[in-house]
Amino acid sequence: MISFRLDGRSVVPPYLQIVQQVRQALRMGVLDVGDKLPTVREVVAATAVNPNTVLKAYRDLERDGLVEPRAGLGTFVVGRPSGPPPGTHSRLARSLTQWVRSAREAGLDDESIESLLRVTLRAAAEEETA
Amino acid sequence: MMASSNPAAIETRGLSKHYRKVTALTEATITVPEGRISALIGPNGAGKTTLLRLLAGLARPTSGEVAVLGGWPRQDPAFLADVGFLAQEIPLYRRLNAEDHIGIGAHLNSRWDGASVRERLQNLRIPLDQTVGTLSGGQRAQLALALTLGKRPRLLLLDEPVAALDPLARRQFLAHLAEAVADGGLTVVLSSHLVADLERTCDHLILLAASHLQLCGDIDTLLTEHRVLVGPAKDTTAIERDHTIVQAVRTARQATLLVRGKAPVIDPAYEAADVGLEELVLGYMGQYAAPAPAHLTMIGEDQ
Amino acid sequence: MTWLVWRQHRNQAYVAAAALAAFAVLMLITGRLMATQYQSARAACSASHSCGNLANTLVLAGPWASLLVTLTVVVPCLLGVFWGGPLVARELETGTSQFAWMQSVTRGRWLTVKVGWALLAAAAWAGAVAAIVTWWSSPANTLEQQNFQPSQFDIQGIVPIGYAVFAVALGIAAGTVIRRTLPAMAVTLVVFTFLRLFIGQNFRAHYLTAVTRTFSFLQHPVVPKGSYWLVSSGVIGPAGQVTGSPVHGGPTINFGGVQMPIGNLPQACQTLVFHDPTSFRSCLAAHGYHAFITYQPADRYWAFQGIEAGIFVLLAAALIAVTAIVVRRRDA
């Protein structure tokens, strides 16, 4: 079962953090179709977040077709977010870890890596629109 | 405003409380819908305790109207059974122990869930046979909350309940509160200084400063209605046509404005950013604080 | 609510019961001793027909027991200060009243149960002490016939119950209005003592109109039967002027319980006063002087007990009414 971690200092509102964490879990294969999401009460007990927040997140996920409430049983995963199959993320994560290692050995600190990533993303985006 | 199927848990109109020399609360018009966890925020002396006491029926208003769960706060067992109040000083009987307090709850309340109280105290490892006077401040706070929840109220009014608790205990306290709300049929108003804690647990805000009501509403709605605009220090009449300027910090060349309004900001000279709860609260409370020294606002300006 | 009152005051109740038991045992022992002493003394004197003087010759009670009995006069005051004062004040001070009032019990019910039990307990405790003291004093009462005197009237019978109920009600009212325990206790002590003495000294004599009897100096002095209460005594001159009693600092002479200040009497009789008491009295009679006593007859004892107890109970009721109003109307 997935457990949620809410970052109080993030600019992302709590309900959106929950939505994003469910989507990410589905992408990474941590959650799969047929799995049960924690009940509102369980999430609230673990994170002290407002119950309406959890309800809102679950409603968003339901609207996107990812989950479905079943009366008396709970909320279950019924779909995956569009995108590459679960294995892709883990595979890419592994190669990224290797790249980060070599970048560090080359002497780049975290800030330089992030900045390099941002520049590369922007360049790629411009390439796509061109 | 959408009409709610449930009547509001709390509705006040022009509520005021004056003492001989001091005005504690001025013309407060507040609505708290049912099922909300409302954060009551404000500096010391702003009127938070007064408001909670008026809602609980422990004090009588000087003027104005107040409706709690559909009626005037009154001295009858039905109303008292529905409303729970926890004062800042956590007044328990110091010479009695937790077990005694559970007994008091059972004898004096029409609805009472002693088993849940005992279970909670067990989870928190609070001894039942030690006199309350010998428990720590945090344990007393937890005991008091457990007892207040044990009477299964429909409305819970808590005055600075987490002030005595360490961060972990605070988190557990708020989690327990939110769980009780998740079970349904409970509305909570809690006052606190610690905005960060409240941001994740609360979905409604009542902001008081200098005995006046500043803000009242669902937090999500309030946050979308406010924005921080950073731009050159120039005439703001255009902005003020669609927005209210809540707080303006101006230097010679730059202005930072906290504004409230539903229309989008079109002026390209201003950079608009979303507001977090803490910034929003500080913005409103800042009007009543001493102005910040000028040199602090010059950080980031071109030399 | 009764459960809560019991739980809060359980220890106090045990201590009070223990103290009462100890007091009762002590009084029982000394009381039985006194009673036996008295019986044998009466038996002895009736055999020799000398019982008339028994009051002056027989000393019944030991000094410590007597002292303890005399000290029971402070019982109502103590009850008022220590049971009444803190009852409401302490809860207002610590905020536990707020806690109770938010537990689905109305202020009215909270007050009624607390006050009810406090007054009942005070009445019972003071009543028990008074009953024990009355029983203990019965040989002395029969012998000396002094129980209408203030020092005995105040600690026997039912007035101690009235005092106790009033004292506790006063403590409760003071605590409710002042909202702080120690000041409430102090106020209770002062006000109770003042009122108790004031009413006793200034009003008691007038509950029922006192009986006045005049008698000639030529006859035996009139001594009312039983434990009468002498309110005043003196001498009436031929024109009806009262040369009354008591006058401080002048020489007096006693005539059947009447204290006569000699200085106001005719000169002719004054010279006779020490040489020839009989001629002195004939002289006064010849000059038209009479003696008088004003007193409350012994058979009015219980009427007076009832009236005084009733007054204090009424005062208590008024105080409780004030308390109830304040508690309901004031902000918590």
Strand and helix map with partners:
The complex is a heterotrimer of chains A (about 130), B (about 300) and C (about 325).
Chain A: H1 14-28, H2 40-47, H3 51-63, E1 67-70, E2 74-77, H4 86-106, H5 110-129
Antiparallel strand pairs in A: 1-2
Chain B: E1 10-18, E2 23-32, E3 37-41, H1 48-56, E4 63-68, H2 77-82, E5 83-86, H3 98-108, H4 114-123, H5 137-150, E6 155-159, H6 167-182, E7 187-191, H7 195-201, E8 204-209, E9 212-218, H8 219-225, E10 226-232, H9 237-242, E11 244-250, E12 254-260, E13 271-273, H10 277-286
Parallel strand pairs in B: 3-7, 3-8, 5-6, 6-7
Antiparallel strand pairs in B: 1-2, 1-4, 8-9, 10-12, 10-13, 11-12
Helix pairs in contact in B: 4-5
Chain C: H1 2-47, H2 54-57, H3 63-71, H4 75-94, H5 96-101, H6 107-136, H7 138-144, H8 150-153, H9 159-178, H10 181-202, E1 211-216, E2 229-236, E3 252-255, E4 258-261, H11 267-270, H12 277-286, E5 290-296, H13 301-329
Antiparallel strand pairs in C: 1-5, 2-5, 3-4
Helix pairs in contact in C: 1-6, 4-6, 4-9, 4-10, 6-9, 6-13, 9-10, 9-13
Quick synopsis:
The complex is a heterotrimer of chains A (130), B (303) and C (332). Chain B is of the alpha/beta class and 303 residues long.
Keywords:
heterotrimer, A: 130 residues, two-stranded antiparallel sheet, 5 helices, 6% strand, elongated, B: alpha/beta, Rossmann fold, four-stranded antiparallel β-sheet, 10 helices, 13 strands, 32% helix
